[in-house]
C-alpha cells in the first residue's frame, strides 16, 4: 500500500557543483537511534567537509530528516592481511526531526519532499527474442563517483541481446571490442517483471533494469549479488527521483535515478577503497 509523507520542498545541496542539482547519494554504514555513520571514503575527510557536508538529509523508509555533522572518524578493517581504512562522518539528527526508520542514504544539504513506496512488482510474460533482440548496443546510464574509473578514451561497457541459430538470444557485451559471457546468459533463462515505469530481467548471475526498451543498468554476480532493486521514491521540486539499490563489483549501493533533460541518469557513489583481497 502506498504511503506518502508530505514534507514540502527545499534544497541546499552544497555537495554538488553549482551546475548540478543532485549528487550521488552517500551510503550509510551504521545507525544507532538518531545517530548515523555516513561513508565518505578514502583515508581523509572530503575537502571543506563542514561547508559541503556539515548538514545532510537522511533518507529512510519512514521519511526524511536533517542531521548535523558531529565528527569525522577513520575506520580500518583487515583486507589481504593488511588494514584498509576509510573515513566516515558521524551525524546526529537535528532536534525536532522525526524518526526516519531504517536509513537508506544521505544526501547533501537540506531536502524536503514527499517519500513514496515503490510500485508493486508483477510477473510478466516470459521475455521473447522478438521483444529484446537488437542490433544496437546500449550503454547503461549510470554515472559513477569514486572507485576505479575508466581511463580516458576507453569506452564504457555496452550490452545487447543477440539472437542465435538455435532460436534463442543471449546477452552480448562490448567494450573496446566484442566479448561474450562465459557461460552465456540466455534470455530463455530470465524472468521478466513489471514495476512501472520499469521492466526488470532477472537472469542467472544478472539483473537488468529497463525503462521500456532502454537499458538503465546491468548488474552481474561479480564477488556479490546481482541486483537492481527499487527501494523508495522521492518527489522533490516537481521531480521524481528513484532510489535504486544496484549491485556493483564487490558491493551493492543505493543510487539516485531520475529523468532530466530528455535522458535518464543514475548517480552512483562507489567505494574508493578495497573491499576484498
Task: Produce a short descriptive summary.
Helix content is about 5%, strand content about 50%. It has about 280 residues and is mainly beta.
How many helices does DSSP assign? Answer: 2
The poorly predicted ranges are: 1-18
The backbone outline, from C-alpha atoms, is globular
Number of domains: 2
Largest sheet: 7 strands, mixed
Average pLDDT figure: 87
Which percent band covers the strand fraction? over 45%
Question: How many β-strands, per DSSP?
Answer: 21
Could you spell the SSE succession in H and E letters? EEEHEEEEEEHEEEEEEEEEEEE
Architecture overview:
With 277 residues, the protein is mostly beta strands. The chain has 2 domains: 112 residues, no CATH class; 148 residues, no CATH class. The chain has 2 helices and 21 strands. The strands form 4 sheets. Strands 1-8-18-19-20-21-10 form a 7-stranded mixed β-sheet, with no helix packed on it. A hairpin with a 2-residue loop joins β2 and β3. The chain is globular. The N terminus is likely disordered.
Task: List descriptors.
277 residues, 21 strands, mainly beta, single chain, 2 helices, disordered N terminus, 6-stranded antiparallel beta barrel, 7-stranded mixed sheet, globular
Fold blueprint:
Blueprint: E1 4-6, E2 26-32, E3 35-39, H1 49-53, E4 55-60, E5 63-79, E6 82-93, E7 103-108, E8 114-116, E9 122-123, H2 129-132, E10 142-145, E11 158-163, E12 169-174, E13 178-180, E14 191-195, E15 198-203, E16 206-211, E17 214-220, E18 228-236, E19 239-248, E20 251-260, E21 263-269
Parallel strand pairs: 10-21
Antiparallel strand pairs: 1-8, 2-3, 2-7, 3-6, 4-5, 4-7, 5-6, 8-18, 9-14, 11-12, 12-13, 14-15, 15-16, 16-17, 18-19, 19-20, 20-21
